[in-house]
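The authors assume throughout that readers already know how a fold can be written as discrete tokens. Each protein is reduced to its one-letter sequence and a matching series of backbone shape codes. I therefore recommend that a typical entry be quoted early in the introduction. For illustration, here is how one protein appears when written out as sequence plus structure tokens:
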Amino acid sequence: MKILLVKLSSLGDVVHALPVVQDIRAALPNAQIDWVVEKSFAPVLALCPALHRVIPCEIRRWRKSPFAAPTRQQWNAFKADLRQTPYDAVIDLQGLTKSALVARLARLAPGGQRYALANQTDGSGYEAPTRWLADVAIRIEPRTPAVQRSRELAAQALGYSFAPHPDFGLKVPPAPTPEAVAAGPAWPQIAFIHGTSRADKEWPLVHWIELGRRLNAAGFQIALPHGNAKELAVSQTLAAALNAGAPARAVVWPLLALDALTHRLARCAGVIGVDSGVSHIAVALDLPHVQLYNFDTAWRTGPDSGGRQVSVFAQPAPGVEAVWRAWLACSAAGAVSAGAGGVNGAGVPTDKA
């Protein structure tokens, strides 16, 4: 059976849909699964070995100049790539006009069908053409978390049941060798994911600094990724504040492609981050993780992995003490380690063997 998934963007939404691949693989071991996604997010899908083919597009860029010659050429090339394979099932996991059109362009095998959402779920985007252009529209209970929504849609479309706990299926390199550990950070690293596309999701800078100092005192180094110039400036400000008393308390990572960033996150002892795509990658990697919410939307997009990963919500923003207690709880719930060292139940590094 050949199946095409359509989930174009954004990064967090793409990550939330990843368990669908593992669900299908468990139910239909011989299925060929392809996925259409925005080119900028394709590196994350490349880390999912259960996918047969990732088909990149650049609809976000193309619609800025739809009549330009390069756009027309690239669009035609994308359509040819998309239509290489006749599919038994095309599943629009996104529910937007652009995803519905991509699903409609895909070629069906004899007897194949296109599936899509029949309704909007709470807090999610939805546009009516998604059900008009599908052969089968499937209704999902409105108050359904983002990960669950995609899993239920695919399961109903293909007629299978799935395990309660989602498996995101990301494959990262094995743990570094002892030599690499010796050459790497002296302390286990906690990544601070402070960057987000929405300013109202940000956490106050003074809170990051205070939390970083607590983690430094507990023996952790703070890792500071960034994805653009604004985030780099925040990372540099945080590093300067944390390194004022002693060097190496915090380190600013270089600008990394999504696959390289995922690899590096996988080697961290844990992550504390706002509601953002990179923070959701940390969830997919099953890292000890505290996710910060200024809005009561954690039920929809927050982690659902028991005590190892937790969400903290408060308005106007969670306080440092609440986040610190959440970190202690999630680090105690899972084995937090870096290299040859580890942490005890209080989230404090143990001696290396």
